[in-house]
Specification:
263 residues; seven-stranded mixed sheet; 10 helices; alpha/beta; three-stranded mixed sheet; single chain
Length: 263
């Protein structure tokens, strides 16, 4: 596939595609890539625009911070231009509020599709929604200056952008509760030790490390990676016997395919 530049470039999100690797970049470095409903819609659109040839998606943020979290303008009475404020949404019908939050969550869900492997390359601050966006990806490479924090609880809110499930799976219930309830920072050493980060590198090597990992992921046949990801992502919801059955079924499909006997 020919390299494509700026498949999407709007509302603080840029998507570029180079053969089997797509890069999604948060581009509003002046505001430390603070997030807004417009940015979430652009992230959702980026997922929908991925060509079928893409196997790996790298998520990165321009500037010193990956994402400082939700833009506080969301809580101002005037909200964002052309958008209802969060306070106005809270005063509306409960069903409408639920539907709005569900739409926001779509920006965070597609990163775990079985047909791709997503890598978050995280530097500086990844706060609140920024932390949850990094957690939305399959893998995380972090710079030595990374600072994760879940600040929603300290603001009287809860993390609602799909971050609680992967956080508990990665670090366990007790540590996840402590991180969320205190809002404290998690730095690079702890992130790597507890499984939040797959790799820690100097900040000036972050982009290169992301591309190196992408290249390593592309070395294996696509169908084998897709089947393996599906097996692993579903393992926690299956019993041991159910996982054995799933393994057999997946391996049968792979063997039939290699033998030219695929359905």
């Amino acid at each position: 596939m020919t390299s494509l530049d700026s498949v999407l470039d709007k509302d603080g999100v840029r998507l570029t595609v180079d053969d089997a690797v797509a890069t999604v970049t948060l581009t509003n470095s002046a505001k430390r890539n603070a997030q807004s409903p417009a940015l979430w819609r652009a992230l959702t659109e980026a997922g929908r625009l991925l060509p079928g040839s893409v196997r790996v998606v790298v998520l990165r943020g321009e500037g010193k911070s990956f994402s400082a979290g939700l833009d506080r303008q969301a809580f101002a009475p005037e909200g964002f231009d052309g958008e209802p404020s969060f306070l106005d949404m809270a005063r509306g019908p409960e069903a409408e509020l639920d539907a709005t939050i569900a739409a926001y969550q779509e920006a965070f869900t597609w990163w775990r599709r079985n047909d791709i492997v997503s890598i978050a390359a995280v530097q500086g601050h990844a706060i609140g929604a920024g932390f949850q966006l990094a957690l939305a990806c399959d893998l995380r490479i972090v710079a030595e200056d990374v600072q994760f924090a879940m600040r929603e609880t300290s603001l009287g809110l809860v993390p609602d952008l799909t971050g609680t499930h992967p956080l508990v799976n990665l670090v366990g219930y007790a540590r996840a509760l402590e991180i969320c309830a205190t809002g404290r920072f998690v730095h690079a050493e702890e992130a790597e030790r507890t499984g939040l980060a797959n790799l820690v590198v100097p900040a000036d090597q972050l982009d290169a490390a992301g591309l190196d990992l992408a290249a390593a992921l592309l070395a294996a046949p696509r169908d084998a990676v897709v089947e393996t990801k599906a097996l692993l992502s579903g393992a926690l919801s299956r019993t041991y016997e159910e996982q054995r059955t799933a393994e057999r079924a997946a391996q049968g499909r792979r063997l039939r395919d290699l033998a030219g006997l695929a359905d």
